[in-house]
Design goal:
This protein has about 280 residues and is of the alpha/beta class. The chain has helices spanning about 15-20, 35-45, 65-70, 105-110, 115-120, 130-140, 150-155, 205-215, 250-260, and strands at about 5, 30, 50-55, 60, 75-85, 90, 100-105, 125-130, 145-150, 160-165, 175-180, 190-200, 220-225, 235-240, 265-270. A hairpin with a 7-residue loop joins strand 13 and strand 14 (about 235-240). The longest helix is centred in the C-terminal third of the chain and has 12 residues, at about 250-260.
């Protein structure tokens, strides 16, 4: 049976992304305790595909995902799912907001709720966990006065009480999950491509690279610099743009950029996310 991995345990946003991606198809969902193990799971063939968080609207890139894609594994992005993210503060029944002595959650969730925590639980200890659902599970099993930041579904799964809802810093919060697999995706006519590259450390070198896209009227949807993990001050650029590697214009630009880059990695061409309105 087709195996799809996600960051567990059951009830994480990654689990929701996996459910949305499979859309009722017959497959086996397999949970992994950490993002690194999930990505290695695809690379080693333990699972056929995996849903991995790569970018959040509030906190930006999920660094471990981006860095492993570029430097550590031989996998491709073959799809994406964008989920709206609503965070809830959860505790065991009987515990009120004033009783909370520690808040636990995934580091991204803690960061996405920074304002709420400052205004309502200032001075209360915070501790990171491997996922939001892992935090909810831990709070449920503990006798301590702890609270977890997680989604609403985990309150039902782990028997927790909702202390506060929609505690993310902005209501328009969302996370982009990429589908990782060993093979790429066929063109659909509604695609996106992701790459990483470095250029010479000289005036105009990045401008020349980006001009390749501008000259062909190719729309960039993301550009971000990341440490190259070699020497301090050396950076690579992560770029997303519209189109598929098999499109004639895209193929030409990728070849020119690869030939003129010090370092180049093709991360994948894949269908863009479509929301409920088809956009």
């Amino acid at each position: 049976m087709y195996k799809i991995g996600y960051l567990g345990p059951k009830g994480t946003f990654a689990y929701d992304a996996a459910i949305a991606y499979t859309n009722g198809a017959t497959c086996e969902l397999i949970e992994f305790p950490e993002i690194s193990e999930l990505i290695y799971g695809v690379d080693s063939g333990k699972v056929d595909k995996a849903l991995v968080p790569i970018e959040n609207a509030l906190e930006g890139t999920v660094n471990i995902t981006a860095d492993m894609l570029v430097h550590e594994v031989n996998v491709k992005i073959s799809g994406e799912v964008v989920l709206p993210i609503r965070h809830y503060l959860l505790a065991r029944p009987g515990i009120e907001l004033k009783d909370v002595k520690m808040v636990i959650s995934h580091p991204q969730a803690l960061a996405q709720c920074r304002k709420y925590l400052y205004n309502n639980l200032k001075g209360v200890e915070q501790r990171p966990t491997t996922s939001t659902a892992a935090a909810a599970r831990e709070v449920s099993a503990s006798e301590s006065h702890w609270a977890a930041i997680a989604n609403k579904k985990t309150s039902e799964i782990y028997g927790l009480k909702i202390l506060s809802e929609d505690i993310q810093d902005h209501l328009a919060n969302s996370t982009r999950f990429v589908v990782m697999s060993k093979s790429g995706s066929e063109p659909t006519g509604y695609d996106k491509t992701s790459i990483a590259f470095t250029v010479e450390n000289s005036p105009g070198s990045l401008l020349a690279a980006l001009k390749l896209f501008a000259d062909k009227n190719i729309n960039l949807t993301k550009i971000e610099s990341r440490p190259m993990k070699t020497l301090l001050g050396q950076y690579l650029f992560l770029v997303d743009f519209e189109g598929h590697e098999r499109d004639a214009l895209i193929s030409e630009v990728l070849e020119n950029l690869s030939n003129n880059s010090k370092f180049f990695v093709f991360l994948g061409s894949y269908p863009k996310h479509k929301d409920a309105n088809g956009g």
